[in-house]
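Help wanted!
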Amino acid sequence: MTPEQIRKDLASFGAFGKKGVGYHVAELVNNISQILGLDRKWNIAIIGVGHLGWALANYRNFASLGFHLAALFDQNPAIVGQLINGVDVLSVADLETTITSRNIQIGVIAVPAGEAQAVADRLVAAGVHGIWNFAPVRIRVPDDVQIVSEDLSVGLSTLSYHLRRQVP
Amino acid sequence: MTPEQIRKDLASFGAFGKKGVGYHVAELVNNISQILGLDRKWNIAIIGVGHLGWALANYRNFASLGFHLAALFDQNPAIVGQLINGVDVLSVADLETTITSRNIQIGVIAVPAGEAQAVADRLVAAGVHGIWNFAPVRIRVPDDVQIVSEDLSVGLSTLSYHLRRQVP
DNA sequence: TCGTGTGAATCCTTTCACAGCC
DNA sequence: GGCTGTGAAAGGATTCACACGA
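Answered by r_m:
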């Protein structure tokens, strides 16, 4: 990225630098954090503690971005009750009550594709405002609920596209 | 997306439709697969069989996109030798020889951040052409090696940005 | 009539150029 | 001298409009 590009991008949110000096880094980080809403705390819950959910539960960068892992849910009785990264795994039966009691704003879907929409519907009904979806399906939510889907096939297709001619 | 948008996008790779009729879906899918290089087979290896690597090894969509899981590597002796999704876990000591013998073109990095660059270097030296990186660090590779990084903090920041005003 | 392919017009983003400031 | 902020110019992408074909 060019310097002008970065200046223009920042300019669309305000003027954060000092002419002739530059940007005060710590201040700029704060400003960007505010722009992204990372200055506040978000309570998240992971639904589905298979390998993927487990990996996400151990993701270290959550905290530094202001995300607090507030609950884990699974339907497998063998997993319910376990402690992962200091958080206990609850039964999905307790989804709605826990989302309310622990003030959870974001739900992370890490269940198999076939169950993803049903989980999303329950999350929305329970009052979640955002969904981070890892299941490889398109999920429908009301307009006032934000959804971000991590689609792994995009990354693989990108690799494949660039390798296509390069590799014999 | 608008219809014109899609027509223009496709037009930059050729003319795939019939005027007055539309697109023959099966044919179009084939054409797009060719454009993306998904019509050929890619052999991939996952390095790091923690929860994340394990989850990736069980990712069902690999095959349908033409990706064949050809090897798994871990440094933990307790995991080496196990069979996951029909693929045996090898010691990372065997990385170089296996990449050659199994004709692996793409390496998937699922190791902790601190080891990611070292693994990437070994993959590149062993002749891998593409790297799919899940470690939360920026990885340096030569220009002729393609790299795609899955940065989870982007998705979370996107959610946070949109929820910022909406949520009290 | 409906849908693709495509030049032309429009819109938006990036780059250039430079004033202002330390 | 070096760096930000910002109008102006240039470059790209999207939308419009329509020719063409089934």
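OP: Thanks! One thing I noticed: Chain B touches chain A through 42 residues (CB under 8 Å).
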